[in-house]
Amino acid sequence: MKRPLTTLATAATVARGTYETLRRTRPGGDTLWNRTNHAGRTVTLCAGPAAALGTAVATATARALPARHRWAGALTVLAAGACGAYDDAAGDDRRGFRTHLSALRRGEVTGGAVKLLGIGAAGLAAGAVLKDRPVDKLLAGVVIAGSAHAVNLLDVRPARAAGAVLALGAGGLARGGTGAALAAAPVGAAAALLADDAAGRTMLGDTGAHALGAGLGLAVVGANGRTGLALHAAVLVAATIAADARNPQSG
């Protein structure tokens, strides 16, 4: 258990340090970093890049993992965070997979389409590294991308997404093995930012929520064989379809 705790501590340290640095400096000015939350309060997006960087660095330095798993995981987290950052900075009010796919068919690339295609591709690339058989590679990609989207769906109130990452990641830590090594990264990053998120001083935004979700998905992939992956993939796909049908403004 020592190595997962080291990974968790690394994630927390990097995430908190990055958050404090961004909160003080705000490169690019307040317009880039400030948003209005559900209660009408001005909050910062500083937690998003902090969560992404903390999760990625901890994954890349997790000595319990093979080198190719470390780098595949770290790059996947960064890719998910980057796609989310694009939507945070340049996205519009359009929501829902059907809306973004319709726009894409018209030749318009929306922030949601960037997330859908970019995170999907990153998940499939990671699955190709983490698993050996074609079916398992595909299922792993679905789990990683689906987890990223699922955590983002929860980021509508303070601490919901971060709290879900802590709760779900704790199960991965308890199982030990590869899954624990991978789960420690998003759990540590989320823990370091939870208090400020809960207090309404910051929000994860798409950047942080997608990065943390991708990290959780990697942990699920590391801990499960084909049956477990298939079950997780089915649940995530069903939840996504249900959320999109119930609220086309999600996503």
Detailed description of the structure:
The structure is a single chain. This protein has 251 residues and is mostly helical. 77% of the residues lie in helices and 2% in strands. It has eleven helices and two strands. It has a two-stranded antiparallel sheet. Helix 1 runs parallel beside helix 9 (177-198) and helix 6 (111-130) packs across helix 7. The longest helix is centred in the first third of the chain and has 24 residues, at 2-25. The chain is globular and about 45 Å long.
Concise structural overview:
This protein is mostly helical and 251 residues long.
Q: What topology emerges from the helices and strands here?
A:
Elements: H1 2-25, H2 30-33, E1 34-36, E2 42-44, H3 47-60, H4 67-90, H5 97-105, H6 111-130, H7 134-154, H8 160-175, H9 177-198, H10 205-223, H11 226-246
Antiparallel strand pairs: 1-2
Helix pairs in contact: 1-3, 1-9, 3-4, 3-9, 3-10, 4-6, 4-10, 5-6, 6-7, 6-10, 7-8, 7-10, 7-11, 8-9, 8-10, 9-10
